[in-house]
C-alpha cells in the first residue's frame, strides 16, 4: 500500500524522495492506529454492544443505531490488520493473500461502510421525527431494530457488485457478457452514489429540519417522554465525525472512477499523490470505528450507568469482580 514501485517506470526520479516521505508518514499513522485504535475500537464497541443488550428495556432509539454502528465498528477493527498490513501491493506487507480473500475483505469493508453511513442517516431522520412527533412512536426502538436489519441486508445486496466482478474475472473466457463487468470502476461508482451521496443528502435534509424545529420553542419541549437534550450534541458530533472520516475515501473512489471514464492513464507526477490520498483515506475510514464509541461514551449520559449494571451482572468471584469494577471505574473516570 505504501510502496514506491509504481513510480519506478515513470521516469519521475524527483518524485522518489516525496514518495519515501509519504511512505513513512502512512506507515507511522497506520502502525499508530493498529497499536492504539484497534484495541480501543474493539474494546469500546464491545462494551457499547454488551452494555445495551444486557439492559434492553432501557434502550432508546439512538442506542439501537449506535449498537448497529458498533457492530460494524467491530468488523472494521477486525479487518484493519489484514487491510493495512497485508495488501499485495504493499512494500512492507507482513503477509499476502489470494484474490478470493481480497474480494472477501473488500466486500466486508463495503458492507461496514454502508451500514455506518446509513445508520447515521437514519439516526438523523428518526431524531427529527422524535422531535416533531414525540407521541407517534414512529421512531420507536422496535421499529429501529427492524430498520437496522434491513440496513444490513441492503448493504449485503449492494456489495454484491464486487462479487459479480470477481466471478466474471474467472468466467469471462466462457461468457462474453462478463467482459463488460471486469472493471472495478463500475462498483466504485455504485458505492459512491449509494454509499455516500444518498445518505449524505438524507443527513443534510434531516439537519435542516432539525435546525428549524429547534428554533421553535413549543410546550412539547417540556414533555418528559422526549429524548434527552444531550442526544442532539451526540447526533451532531456523530454526523460530523462519520462524514468527515469517510468523505476522503469516497472522494478517492470518485476520482478513480472519473479518471477511468476519461480513458487516460495517470501521469507519473500525479500517481504518487493519488496513491497517498487513497491509502490515507482508507486509514481515516478505519479510524472511525474507534472514534464513534468514544463519542458515545463522552456524550451519552446513560452509558456509565449501563456499564455499572453490566459489571454487576458478570458471573465471577469476589476478587475478580472487585478487580473488574476497579478497572471499570477507571474507564468511567
Description:
By secondary structure, the protein is mainly α. It has a single domain (5-301), classed as Up-down Bundle (Rhopdopsin 7-helix transmembrane proteins). 74% of the residues lie in helices and 0% in strands. The protein has ten helices and no strands. The longest helix is centred in the first third of the chain and has 38 residues, at 16-53. The radius of gyration is 22 Å and the shape is globular. One of its GO terms (biological process) is adenylate cyclase-inhibiting G protein-coupled receptor signaling pathway. Keywords: Cell membrane, G-protein coupled receptor, Membrane, Receptor, Transducer, Transmembrane, Transmembrane helix. InterPro entries: GPCR_Rhodpsn, GPCR_Rhodpsn_7TM, GPER1-like, GPR146. It comes from Myotis lucifugus. It holds the Pfam family 7tm_1.
CATH topology: Rhopdopsin 7-helix transmembrane proteins
Structural class: mainly alpha
**What is the overall silhouette?**
globular
What would CATH call the homologous superfamily?
Rhodopsin 7-helix transmembrane proteins
Average pLDDT, rounded to a whole number, is: 77
Instruction: Return the domain count.
Output: 1
Q: What's the order of the H and E elements?
A: HHHHHHHHHH
How far apart the termini lie comes to 39 Å
- The assigned CATH architecture is Up-down Bundle
Helix content: over 70%
Give the strand tally: 0
Q: Major β-sheet, in short?
A: none
**How many H/I helices?**
10
> Which residues form runs of ≥5 with pLDDT under 50?
5-14
Amino acid at each position: 500500500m505504501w510502496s514506491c514501485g509504481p513510480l519506478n517506470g515513470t521516469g519521475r526520479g524527483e518524485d522518489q524522495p516525496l514518495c519515501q516521505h509519504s511512505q513513512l508518514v502512512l506507515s507511522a499513522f497506520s502502525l499508530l492506529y493498529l497499536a492504539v485504535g484497534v484495541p480501543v475500537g474493539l474494546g469500546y464497541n464491545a462494551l457499547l454492544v454488551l452494555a445495551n443488550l444486557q439492559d434492553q428495556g432501557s434502550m432508546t432509539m439512538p442506542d439501537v443505531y449506535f449498537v448497529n454502528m458498533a457492530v460494524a465498528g467491530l468488523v472494521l477493527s477486525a479487518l484493519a490488520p489484514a487491510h493495512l498490513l497485508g495488501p499485495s501491493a504493499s512494500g512492507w506487507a507482513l503477509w499476502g493473500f489470494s484474490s478470493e480473500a481480497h474480494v472477501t475483505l473488500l466486500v466486508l469493508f463495503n458492507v461496514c461502510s454502508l451500514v455506518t453511513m446509513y445508520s447515521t442517516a437514519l439516526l438523523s431522520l428518526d431524531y427529527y421525527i422524535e422531535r416533531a412527533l414525540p407521541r407517534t412512536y414512529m421512531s420507536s426502538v422496535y421499529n429501529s431494530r427492524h430498520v437496522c436489519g434491513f440496513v444490513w441486508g441492503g448493504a449485503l445486496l449492494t456489495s454484491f457488485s464486487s462479487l459479480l466482478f470477481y466471478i466474471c474475472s474467472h468466467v469471462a473466457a466462457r461468457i462474453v457478457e462478463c467482459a463488460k463487468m471486469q472493471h472495478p470502476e463500475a462498483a466504485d461508482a455504485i458505492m459512491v452514489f449509494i454509499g455516500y451521496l444518498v445518505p449524505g443528502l438524507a443527513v443534510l435534509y434531516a439537519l435542516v429540519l432539525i435546525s428549524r424545529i429547534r428554533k421553535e420553542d413549543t410546550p412539547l419541549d417540556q414533555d418528559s417522554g422526549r429524548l434527552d437534550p444531550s442526544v442532539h450534541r451526540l447526533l451532531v458530533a456523530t454526523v460530523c465525525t462519520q462524514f468527515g472520516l469517510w468523505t476522503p475515501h469516497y472522494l478517492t473512489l470518485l476520482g478513480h472512477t472519473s479518471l477511468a471514464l476519461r480513458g487516460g492513464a495517470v501521469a507519473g507526477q500525479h500517481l504518487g499523490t493519488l496513491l497517498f490520498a487513497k491509502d490515507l483515506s482508507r486509514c481515516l475510514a478505519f479510524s472511525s470505528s474507534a472514534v464513534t464509541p468514544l463519542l458515545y461514551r463522552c456524550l451519552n449520559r446513560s452509558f456509565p450507568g449501563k456499564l455499572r449494571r453490566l459489571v454487576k451482572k458478570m458471573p465471577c468471584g469476589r476478587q475478580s469482580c472487585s478487580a473488574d469494577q476497579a478497572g471499570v471505574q477507571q474507564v468511567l473516570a
